[in-house]
Specification:
The chain has 261 residues and is mostly beta strands. The chain is 9% helix and 35% strand. It has one helix spanning 2-24; strands spanning 74-75, 85-87, 96-99, 102-105, 111-116, 125-136, 141-147, 150-158, 163-167, 181-182, 191-198, 201-206, 209-215, 235-239, 241-252. The strands form two sheets. Strands 1, 3, 4, 6, 11, 12, 13 and 15 form an eight-stranded antiparallel sheet that branches. The longest helix has 23 residues, at 2-24. The radius of gyration is 38 Å and the shape is globular.
Length: 261
């Protein structure tokens, strides 16, 4: 009986020692994930900037420009850069860039344009340029200029592609006033556009044809209300069309062009 108790005691004592040994064994903590703010990330390389792709111009675009008749012309486009110009901040505007010898106004929704940022005359001057409709079916040249303390726009190829006129006279735009004309403008062809502003008259030519000759005495001159006002004081714009522009020049004049000029 004593032996049984002794062995039982030994067994119980050994069990207690075993449990005590297990309880005293240090427990290693489970590895914890690295907090997000301490994680090391390798940034993806930024894509290299890409240059603006050229617009494919028709072969006719390479034709040399016609000479400017008369003296005193000053260029405002160097044929290489947009120096002196800035993009007009039209909502929905297309891209503007230079290609050899030309400025491209890509089709906007609806406007794309540029503004001259340097000094420009307000009266008694002519401005001329070559413009081409590359794509689209509306005006490929909206030329906005000062007229004394006011402004107006010569619209070429508007209202569906053929209208020419001054916006605005007495609140009536190029489709409504006495300057309204219609002409067939071919895609991919250069047109020499010339506008003369004097104290009592506005005159405009497309190539050799005088299409506008209006007395402005007593008339209220303004631009058409809306986005085109952003083209002031001197700017060029297109409406739902891709345009090419070149040979942009101006010169002072002393009065209206005479007969045959």
């Amino acid at each position: 009986m004593m032996k049984i108790q002794f062995f039982c005691g030994l067994a119980v004592g050994a069990g207690l020692m075993f449990l005590a040994g297990c309880a005293s064994e240090p427990v290693k903590p489970a590895p914890q994930p690295t907090p997000p703010h301490q994680q090391t990330t390798v940034p993806s390389p930024s894509p290299a900037p890409q240059s603006e792709p050229d617009v494919l111009l028709p072969a006719t675009a390479a034709q040399p420009a016609a000479p400017f008749e008369g003296a005193g012309w000053q260029a405002v486009f160097d044929g290489k850069t947009l120096a002196g110009w800035r993009e007009t901040q039209f909502a929905g505007r297309g891209e503007v860039h230079c290609q050899p010898g030309v400025i491209i106004l890509k089709m906007g929704d609806p406007f794309t344009g540029i503004n001259w940022t340097n000094d420009f005359p307000k009266m008694n001057y002519e401005v001329a340029l070559d413009a081409m409709r590359v794509m689209g079916s509306d005006f490929f040249c909206g030329l906005t200029v000062p007229v004394g303390a006011s402004f107006c726009s010569l619209i070429v190829g508007g209202w569906g592609g053929s209208l020419v006129g001054i916006s605005s006279l007495d609140g009536m735009d190029a489709s409504e006033n006495e300057t309204t004309k219609f002409s067939n403008f071919e895609m991919g062809r250069w047109y020499r556009i010339r506008l003369r502003i004097t104290s009592d008259r506005i005159q405009a030519w497309i190539d050799k044809d005088k299409l506008i000759d209006v007395v402005t005495t007593g008339k209220r001159i303004s631009v058409r209300p809306g986005d085109i006002e952003l083209s002031k004081p001197f700017g060029l714009a297109s409406w739902q069309a891709t345009s090419a522009l070149r040979e942009i020049k101006f010169r002072p004049v002393t009065g209206p062009a005479g007969k045959g000029e």
